[in-house]
Amino acid sequence: MAKPLEQVMDALDIETFFVCASEEEGRALMLSLLKAWGFKDVDVVFAQHEGPGVRVRGRAYVYRPADKYRWLRAEAGQEGALS
């Protein structure tokens, strides 16, 4: 069975609510969280301050356009494509 991240077409979006003082702090918390999880290519695509904190949607890019997609190599039947 394939690993879930190897089947992601482009990016993984994570949305949460951080209890914090400002939108800037919420953005920084999201970027820090995604990097702590091991993602290198990350961005914040939405942030809105609401009452005690910030609703934030972060995006971790697994693949960018023209990358060598693991799931495409697997469909082509290449040996070791998912190893």
Features:
83 residues, alpha+beta, Defensin A-like, 24% helix
Protein model, in words:
By secondary structure, the chain is α+β, with helices and mostly antiparallel strands. It has a single domain (8-67), classed as D-lysine 5,6-aminomutase beta subunit KamE, N-terminal domain (Defensin A-like, 2-Layer Sandwich), CATH 3.30.30.60. It contains two helices and three strands; from the N terminus they run βαββα. Strands 1-3-2 form a three-stranded antiparallel beta sheet, with helices on one face. It is elongated, with a radius of gyration of 16 Å. It starts with 10 loop residues before the first strand and ends in an 8-residue tail after the last helix. Mean pLDDT is 86; it is low at 79-83.
